[in-house]
Amino acid sequence: MPAATTEAGFRHYDEADRIEVASTRQAFDRYEVRYYFGRRDEPVPGPEAFLVDLPPGMRAAAHFHPVDQFQVFFGAPGARYQRHPIGPLLVHYSDAFTTYGPFSTAAEPARLWTLRPEASAFTAYMPEDRARLTRRGTRTRHVDVEPSAATALDVGATATTYVWPPEADGLAVALLRAGPGGVVDGPASAGAQYYCVLDGTVLHDGRPYSRRSLGWSGPGQAGPTLAAGPDDGFAVLLLQFPHQPSVERTAREDEA
Hints:
By secondary structure, the protein is mainly beta. The protein has one helix at 246-255, and strands at residues 9-11, 17-22, 30-37, 48-54, 59-60, 63-64, 69-74, 80-81, 84-85, 90-94, 103-104, 110-116, 124-125, 140-144, 158-164, 172-178, 183-185, 193-200, 202-204, 207-209, 214-217, 225-228, 234-240.
């Protein structure tokens, strides 16, 4: 089981702890989860990140959590977020205490990364758990990322494309790309960051990290240096959280 961590670093897909989870609230019996950071059995200090294999014919009802959260959907034919078809790659963000969903699959399975700056075992479904909505979350959104945007660049070339330009509180999503031999420095941020390897291979601290590997940088930590090997470029999705947890911002607004 991955240990608690507040240190920046990367984890391979095959290093993530694989478990099967029984479902009590969804339209399916069991599903598989791979934990990159954090623990399933109890919340621990540091980030929480896991990859869920969504089975065919599932439907997750509208719900909320008490922490800010990114989700990255790897879609399939017929999969939907609300009424929006989930294509090959969809990025979703919700502030804490903001209801989002539902989402569903059809005849084929799909995958979903859930990425949080801190762990939480709290999930509340609407409308039956409305009494647990004790704060006023305000921001939820989703956007498709074009698969063609992840194609490799020329030797030594790099590019940073913002899917969501940085907002006033630092929330941002960007696609970092490099051709063979290229080097990209992750931007410094007062907010936590995740680095999702979509394609190619990233070299970090002398180790290669391939597709579906995941990196983490804590609040106020320097972004990692991402290098491409001599024969392979990379495409990495950068997910940057607000400088301050949204629950602290909304608490100030409620008191005003």
